[in-house]
Each structure stands twice: as structure tokens, then as C-alpha cells.
Amino acid sequence: MSGAITLGTATAVPGTIQYGQWGAISHPTGHDDFLPVIIAQGQRDGPCIWLTAGIHGPEHAGPSVLYRLITQELVDELRGTIVALPALSPAGLRTKSYVPYHLPKNPNRMWPDGKPAKEQDPDLDPPSAVEHAFARLFEIVRETADYMIDYHNAWIDSISFVFQDRVLYRNDGDAAASKAAAETLAVQQQEMMAAYGHTIVTEFPAKYYVKQDLHRSTTGAALLVGGIPSFTVELGTGLMPDPAIVAASAAGTRNVLRWAGMLDSPLEPINGIKVVDPGFRTRRSPAARVDEACVVLHLVQAGDMVKKGDPIAEIRDVWGRPLNGGLLRAQHDGFVIGRAHGIYFYPGDTVVALSIRDEEPVVAPYPDDYYDK
Ligand SMILES: [Zn+2]
Asked: CA 227 → CA 181, 186, 333, distances in Å?
């Protein structure tokens, strides 16, 4: 969708970049938080893509990508509209905090879940101010967005990658039609991620995906409730954005615009970062963990391929002596998303985050009781 798009005080004007504010939250001290809005519209008609960032306060690479990406030169070539929100959580960004101080919960689990509205149970907490704001904003997303990308950082020294959300469908009513629509959406999502050109990691399998409220993340809701092809990007270290990753993400985003028919220029190569393609689909995993309190000396780095049985870390006691054979081995084929921080770990701690061979389908039904709860 293109043409007349207004978000808060910003209204698209063909051939220009417009800046404005969208009123989000009122604080009890009489202050209001607005979300800064950037609307870049080309002279020619085309799709509308939403680019959002800054929902987690310590993740500063995503806003950096948007600030680098949106230029008059881009608009001069653009067909359609970019709606960019670089600061989805102003309270988080001003305190560099993952959660807003006025609501100590992950704001990236507060988008609409697609369930019908029901009467508020007075014994349960009502929706928060952030949920109300995101519900209002989501209505505008649904009206205007053809595509969406949400920018994040995973953790220090993790690789740049894309999270592929599971595409869930309703198993009641016309399940065949719902499944077919989900499969079409998954194909568009796959093409869009391929155009972006960074490493792809599929999210947790469906039952954990819902249990962890990932269906209420920015792109989870866009995809599942809005039916909008979308994905989340993770851009390595958050508080000190890596210029190579920021540049590669801006290039990947321009490639998505080209895929969407919004730019005519040829695809750009993705340079300067590790891109891992193991040749099979992999998913996020909390493996590998240690089973005793120990010191860990990592043997693998972000982006390394691993095979089941490969040593990935030396396990020592605090004096540096080998414990229990001294080696932690990979339990799966896959690759390293990143090492966990530090070298001292408790039993059950993840010491290396892996993306492991994925046996679960991307397109899957919602859990049976999803709409009952
Ligand atoms: Zn994040």
C-alpha cells in the first residue's frame, strides 16, 4: 500500500522524508512518551515497508541501521513508502535498559495475540500502557504495512543473523485454508530473508514459540495476526554497534527493498560479516549447556560450524584442572550463534548458543487450547 500514509504528526509527501511523533504513553508525572516517526516516500507508487527498532534499550545497532539507511538518495530511487520507527521503547533507550522502568517486562512480547477481546477478569492484571499503545499502533501496521523488519541485537560478539518466526495457523474452522495461507506467507518470508542475505536461524519449535510469547513479538504479531511477511534481525553487539554489521544490515535491507520492487538498482553483495549457510535449516537452541559448576575455555567462535561430537569447550575447575574428561562436546550438528559471556558457569547454564539442525516444520498449527485461554 502506498499513497496517503499518516502516523501521528507525520504524513507522507512523495519524494521526501517526513519526521513526526506518534503519541504512545502518558506518564503519571504529566510527561508523555512519543515514538519518533520517519516516513520516506518515493515519487513512484509501490509497497509500504515498516522498519522498527529500539524496543530493547541496550540494542543500538538497529536504530543505527535506520539512521544510515534513510537518505534523500534512497528516496530519490524509491518506489513506495518506508515507515521507520527507530525508538519503540523510549524509556528503555534512555536508561539503556532491556525493559522499561515503568513496566519491568519484555516489551517485545506485548503486541496483540489475535485472540478475541474478552471481559477483563478483575483478579488478573489488565493490559499495560505499553500493550494499549502497541494495540493502537498495530491497527495502523495492519492498515498500511506490506512488509516489516524489526531490528535487534542478540549479545556481545554474536553473529549477525535473522530470526525466522514459525508461521502458525488455526486448526479449527477451515484448517486447510488457514494452512494454505500460512504456507504462502512462509514462502514470502523465506524469499524476503534470502534477499536480506544474512545467516538465518529459525525460532523455537511451535509449542515453545507460543509458550515464550514469541507470537507476541513485533514480527510474530505482524506475521501471525497481520499476515504480513516479516522477520527479526539480530545485529551482534548492542551497546557498541559493529560498523561492519550496521553497513551489512543496511545493504541487506536495501536488497529486501529490491526484492519487494521498491528499488531498481541491482542487488548488493553482503560483505564484511560472517554469513553461515550450513546447507540445512537450523533453529535456535539453548544448547550447549554444562552440567556442573565449572570454568569454561571456549574452543569455538561465533559463526563456526560444529558437528555432533566435536569438542566445543574445555571444562576446568577454578584452579584450571580438567573436570570430567575436560571437554564439552556438541550434541547436534549446526553452527555457533555466539559464546555465552564470561568463563564461570553454574550447572545448566548455556555456554555456547547454537543453531542446530531443525526437524520441526516452519508452518505448524497453534496449540489446541490456544484460543480457549
Ligand atoms: Zn532485542
From this structure: 9, 10, 32
